[in-house]
Design brief:
607 residues, 4-stranded parallel beta sheet, 23 helices
Length: 607
């Protein structure tokens, strides 16, 4: 999906408010629960996030809630800006002046921003005991600190000590239940302890203070101790029928990454099941909204915008996507797809996108060779990628974004060279097709380092050292830098390494971030200490990032139940190294094995 930043220069809150248009009018000023929904990044990033808007919609529709938004200021790193207490977007209240201060955590890289906001508001404490003591001494209502989002669902532990409760999974059905408990607690005058115990009973709510990690001598997690008054493992919450909920843009503004585009979600989960990919596992079971629901949403979108963006992990696999895109085109709009599977590209789909006058698409081969792609679980061949690009070019598409990963398990130099060959082959095909029109096609090659993610088969794999990754990227760069109409971009390995730390960290990583924030340092300061023990009792950074984790150890994020059988992940991890027909018994895991659950929740994709 193409993006265009329409960011104003040094916009004021008044400027931003003047540009907003509400798709659905809200009247939630009478509620007695004050909820400050905060995205730990700047306005344009936050309002580009469909999940953030969806949660705002749920809260704004609740008559018991007064919801306001919070964002990072434009120059949040400036000392003068930090010296002032940051305030809510709607009514200029202190972010801390509320009953609930909630954070939307889509990406691990926003964790430091979360700490910065808490620090600015005087709410940054390293343990629940410190937070409880501060709440008792506070002369104002001390807010409940909560968070949700994909990053928090994958691994809540790096931020567990600084929050009171964490939402694990999807919010549509959970949030109203959450507010039921909060409303009852406020009406009946419950203590914070009673409130947290009540919240812990809700499926999908994790209250970290009740689950205390114990560590082995080697630094790994030994177990979690918890009282018998809370569930043994909080379970991830998911919505069985997505068609009951319409997830689409609620507030239109040009000050987003997608400018004036109206976004609508087609479904959750991805049938590919790539072994490195979060979407293929944490959103299981795979669910698609029905065509009728999406057609209704498209109509709402066209009444408010001439650009409709279909978003989701596998948009092109929706059986009605070509028809939906054609509907947009027939009504004079422009349709775009956030992702297109090469093997799902048909002439009808290509034509519907082209008819919408949308001229840039994204394809994600991920690896350059068929062999490595099979090892990673990506079931698509080079020929299919080239054919898909050709079909799209024939239909009039002129911009192509190709996404690849370097550092995948089992990768060798030949696989790096294969990226250059495939990208060049795609470039040659689309340029040749477009040449007679006089408007040559172009290809943007984007490369990102592999980062092991929780709840995926590659969660046990080590991440390569940044210096090794830099050599791989440089090897690739030399082969493509002089190819015309082929742009090369990459994510700096050191930044990816920091993301890897947050992705696989436990609560001790939270202590590192706390120290980093208190010293006024950035993640770069922390990355310089990859071989040192920065704090007593805290392993070095490399312990979390570049170590191959054992099947026998308890992983930090297994404090919650992701509903993905560990046996499935172990088997897929072994298949990556030994082939798709690998069927040897796996080591019994913490999650155990449940064939019925595996069929219902995992929807394992056949080879």
């Amino acid at each position: 999906m193409g993006t265009q930043r329409a960011k104003l220069k040094n916009p004021t809150t008044k400027d931003l408010k003047s540009l907003e248009r509400y798709i659905v009018p809200y009247n939630n000023s009478a509620g007695d629960i004050r909820f400050h929904l905060t995205y730990p990044n700047q306005y344009w990033v936050a309002m580009s996030n469909l999940g953030f808007q969806a949660v705002y919609d749920i809260l704004a529709r609740d008559s018991r809630v007064q919801v306001e938004r919070g964002f990072l200021p434009e120059s949040f790193d400036d000392e003068k800006v930090f010296a002032n207490k940051w305030r809510s977007f709607e009514n200029n209240r202190l972010l801390a002046d509320c009953d609930i201060l909630g954070f939307s955590l889509s990406f691990e890289t926003d964790y430091p921003h979360l700490l910065k906001i808490l620090n600015n508001q005087g709410l940054l404490f390293g343990s629940w005991e410190e937070r409880e003591a501060a709440a008792r001494e506070a002369k104002f209502s001390f807010p409940l600190l909560i968070a949700g989002g994909t990053a928090a669902t994958l691994n809540p532990e790096p931020v567990a000590d600084i929050l009171d409760a964490i939402v694990i999974g999807e919010a549509e059905e959970l949030l109203p239940e959450f507010m039921d408990v909060v409303h009852k607690a406020k009406s009946e005058g419950w203590s914070r302890e009673e409130l947290l115990k009540g919240l812990a009973q809700i499926e999908g709510v994790y209250v970290p203070r009740f689950y205390q990690p114990q560590y082995n001598e080697d630094g790994s997690v030994a177990r979690y101790e918890y009282p018998d008054t809370v569930p043994a493992r909080p379970r991830r919450r998911f919505v069985k029928d997505l068609s009951k909920f319409k997830t689409h843009t609620r507030i239109m503004t040009p000050e987003t990454e997608f400018k004036d585009m109206f976004l609508t979600e087609t479904g959750r989960g991805c049938e590919m099941g790539c072994r490195f990919c979060v979407a293929g596992y944490i959103y299981r079971p795979i669910r698609k909204r029905n065509e009728e629901t999406l057609q209704d949403t498209v109509q709402v979108g066209l009444e408010n915008s001439d650009a409709i963006g279909f978003v989701g992990a596998s948009v092109s696999s929706h059986k009605a996507i070509a028809k939906l895109a054609q509907t947009v085109a027939e009504k004079g709009g422009r349709a775009s797809l956030s992702s297109i599977m090469s093997q799902k590209v048909t002439r009808a789909l290509a034509a519907s996108i082209s008819e919408s006058e949308y001229k840039t698409v994204a394809l994600a081969p991920e690896a350059g060779s068929d062999r490595l792609r099979r090892a990673a679980g990506k079931r698509v061949a080079n020929e299919q990628v080239i054919k898909a690009a050709s079909e799209l070019a024939e239909a009039g598409i002129r911009g192509f974004k190709l996404y690849f990963i370097v550092g995948l398990p089992t990768e060798c130099d030949e696989d790096i060279d294969a990226i250059a060959k495939l990208a060049t082959a795609v470039r040659n095909a689309v340029v040749d097709i477009s040449r007679p029109t006089g408007k040559l096609a172009w290809v943007s090659l984007s490369v990102n380092p592999f980062i092991p993610k929780a709840s995926t088969p590659f969660q046990w794999e080590p991440m390569l050292d940044p210096k090794v990754l830099e050599k791989k990227i440089e090897r690739l760069r030399k082969q493509v830098i002089k190819v015309p109409n082929l742009e090369f971009r990459f994510e700096p390995p050191k930044e990816s390494y920091f993301q890897g730390l947050l992705s696989r960290g436990d609560r001790r990583v939270g202590k590192l971030m706390l120290e980093m924030e208190r010293r006024g340092e950035s993640w770069k300061w922390l990355m310089k200490r990859t071989s040192d023990v920065l704090l007593e009792g805290v392993p070095p950074v490399d312990f979390y990032v570049s170590r191959r984790l054992s099947f026998t150890e308890l992983l930090p994020w297994e404090v919650v139940d992701s509903l993905i059988p560990r046996t499935l992940l172990e088997r897929e991890a072994m298949r990556a190294h030994h082939g798709e027909d690998w069927t040897q018994p796996v080591i019994p895991g913490y999650a155990g094995s449940d064939d019925e659950q595996e069929m219902e929740i995992s929807q394992e994709v056949g080879t």
